[in-house]
Amino acid sequence: MILDFLNWQSLILLSVLVGLELVLGIDNILVISLVVEPLPFHLRQRARRLGLLVALLLRILFISGVLSLVRLTTPCIGYFSVRDLFLLTGGMFLMAKGVFELYDMLFHKKKEEVKHHIGKNALTAAVIQIMMLDLLFSIDSVITAVGLTRHLTIIIVAVVLSFLAVLCYVGPLGEFILKYPSLKILALTFLVLIGANLILQGLRYHFPEEGIYIAIVFAVVVELLQMLYQKNHDS
């Protein structure tokens, strides 16, 4: 197994897979930030870590059953495969969550004191949501990785390395998003867009995901520049 890494081709492939996982992890950061938002501050990082850790273990088991990946794209209910059903369900969930959160944020005042009564059940629910959504977002990346190589060791190492990277910046970046209402609104808007894209994929309509990522980066850069402008002119 270690011999797989003793050549440049394997190292380049590993780098490509890690990069792929990190780029696709943008969706994860947005979703996780919004899932843990109702929790008290001291529970948010615990929810992130537990959810991602369980999702990592399940993803490794998922990758280990590489031969069953073929069945994910085989029609099982009408024209829909298991992958299609996962994408449709996850897309509808993300769209509904984004729309309801946007409505609640724009038209209702948040009651901070309610957070003091949030307990173990809310933490468990957040962990389960993070785990399930991470697996949802991993379907395409795992299928792509398997298409690039059948060396399971390389794929698993890439997943673990990208997991460690995400674990490092998911907390600070997530709290930064939640700190500024304008960034949270932006995240919710893109959550609806990501959900719509998942539904289109489930219906076998392919929309280039690169366009979504470019739009996310562009909108975030514009918002950060606006925040910097306001900070310099208000002081």
Walk me through this protein's architecture.
There is one protein chain. The chain is built from eight helices and two strands, in the order αααββααααα. By secondary structure, the protein is mainly alpha-helical. It has one domain. The radius of gyration is 19 Å and the shape is globular.
Based on Cα principal axes, name the global outline. globular
Average pLDDT = 77
What is the number of helices? 8
Q: How many individual domains? A: 1
| Class by alpha and beta content | mainly alpha
| Overall helicity | over 70%
Main sheet strand line-up: 1-2
What sequence of helices (H) and strands (E) makes up the elements?
A: HHHEEHHHHH
How many β-strands, per DSSP? 2
Largest sheet: 2 strands, antiparallel
How would you describe this structure in keywords?
235 residues, 2% strand, mainly alpha, 8 helices, single chain
Summarize it.
The chain is mainly alpha-helical and 235 residues long. It has helices spanning 8-35, 41-64, 69-72, 82-107, 120-148, 152-179, 181-202, 209-234; strands spanning 75-77, 80-81. Helix 1 packs antiparallel against helix 5 and helix 6 runs antiparallel to helix 7.
